């Protein structure tokens, strides 16, 4: 598929590298060798789309991506982000371990951020440069000012396209006023369908690609988590809606009702969850957070599933009944 109005051709499934960065937000330990192998294996599966960000364990994800793609840079299309920093002042975002993260989308901060990202990624250009979260008081920067510097970076050849993550409809409209917006990232799974209300139609109208993140709801929609699972405090899953015991039980029951579909399509629960998202529109890309080559092998099988209209509707009906 093509990204927005750019000439960038990418696989419909992208590899997300938040977990690959490791760190205190994840239960898994850092494993750089496996992470690099996963990124390099993506090309074997015709997956060329990578997503990273400085905020993923304080630049560690970018460093790993840089090491992995160094010898085949032109074979990959890379998203990295800006606007979340731990090195400068800004509006408080959250705390990871003992380090605080801040939102800062000012021109000066973006100029500093991109140089750090280019260095960590071992490259001289970024395919898609994306705002990670949107600007808020008391360090508010209008989207028009942020887009000014992005358009400058594009003219300088440092970036090839512009993206925005965690946006609402008004954000998207403002980005579009200021220049070309190629892709947005939004949380989208069969359990969380809020983007369908306004964002999906707006992006389709303006030729903006939607990249769905968390299509497996942090692993719940893999079918490997049982009703007794408790997310450890301090991890990314802790406190999330679907990991609350009552909701988790409902999801596990729903997945049990998917089993005939898994047999019909000869696929896993995770494959079904990803295929359902892909079936919602040609302008939708799905971000898979695989951390091993084996996980990526498994998740990529979703590309070969052609769900019937009846099965798409049936899966939606089951999900609507619990959410």
**Number of helical runs?**
10
Biggest sheet overview? 8 strands, parallel, barrel
CATH architecture: Alpha-Beta Barrel
Order of helices and strands: EHEHEEEEHEHEHEHEHHEHH
Mean pLDDT: 94
Q: In what order do the strands lie side by side in the largest sheet?
A: 1-2-3-7-8-9-10-11
Number of domains: 1
Q: What is this structure's SSE topology?
A:
Elements lengths: L12 E4 L15 H11 L6 E3 L8 H10 L7 E6 L1 E2 L5 E6 L2 E5 L3 H15 L4 E6 L11 H13 L3 E7 L3 H10 L4 E5 L11 H8 L2 E5 L31 H21 L3 H10 L5 E5 L4 H8 L8 H14 L1
Parallel strand pairs: 1-2, 1-11, 2-3, 3-7, 7-8, 8-9, 9-10, 10-11
Antiparallel strand pairs: 4-6, 5-6
Helix pairs in contact: 1-2, 2-3, 4-5, 7-10
Describe the protein in words.
With 323 residues, the protein is of the alpha/beta class. The chain has a single domain, classed as TIM Barrel (Alpha-Beta Barrel). The chain contains ten helices and eleven strands. The protein has an eight-stranded parallel barrel, surrounded by five helices. Strands 4-6-5 form a three-stranded antiparallel beta sheet, with no helix packed on it. Helix 6 links the parallel strand 9 and strand 10. Helix 1 packs across helix 2, helix 2 crosses helix 3 and helix 7 packs antiparallel against helix 10. It is globular.
């Amino acid at each position: 598929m093509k990204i927005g109005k750019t000439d960038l051709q990418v696989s419909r499934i992208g590899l997300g590298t938040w977990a690959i960065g490791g760190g205190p937000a994840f239960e898994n330990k850092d494993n750089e060798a496996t992470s690099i192998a996963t990124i390099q294996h993506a090309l074997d599966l015709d997956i060329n789309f990578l997503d990273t960000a400085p905020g993923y364990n304080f630049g560690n994800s970018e460093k790993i991506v840089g090491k992995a793609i160094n010898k085949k840079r032109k074979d990959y299309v890379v998203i990295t982000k800006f606007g979340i920093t731990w090195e400068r002042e800004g509006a408080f975002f959250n705390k990871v371990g003992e380090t605080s993260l801040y939102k800062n989308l000012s021109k000066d901060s973006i100029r500093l951020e991109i140089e750090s990202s280019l260095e960590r990624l071992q490259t001289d250009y970024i395919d898609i440069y994306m705002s990670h979260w949107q600007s808020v008081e008391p360090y508010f920067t209008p989207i028009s000012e942020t887009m000014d510097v992005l358009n400058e970076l594009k003219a300088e050849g440092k970036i090839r396209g512009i993206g925005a993550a965690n946006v609402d409809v008004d954000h998207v409209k403002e980005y579009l006023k200021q220049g070309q917006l190629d892709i947005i990232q939004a949380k989208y799974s069969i359990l969380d369908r809020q983007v369908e209300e306004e964002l999906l139609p707006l992006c389709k109208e303006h030729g903006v690609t939607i990249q769905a993140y968390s299509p497996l709801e942090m692993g719940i929609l893999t079918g490997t988590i049982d009703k007794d699972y408790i997310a450890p405090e301090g991890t990314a899953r802790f406190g999330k809606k679907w990991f609350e015991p009552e909701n988790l039980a409902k999801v596990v029951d729903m997945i049990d009702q998917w089993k005939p579909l898994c047999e019909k399509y000869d696929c896993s629960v995770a494959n079904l969850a990803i295929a359902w998202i892909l079936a919602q529109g040609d302008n939708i890309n799905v971000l898979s957070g695989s951390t091993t080559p084996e996980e990526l092998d498994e998740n990529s099988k979703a590309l070969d599933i052609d769900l019937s209209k009846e099965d798409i509707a049936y899966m939606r009906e089951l999900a609507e009944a619990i959410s």
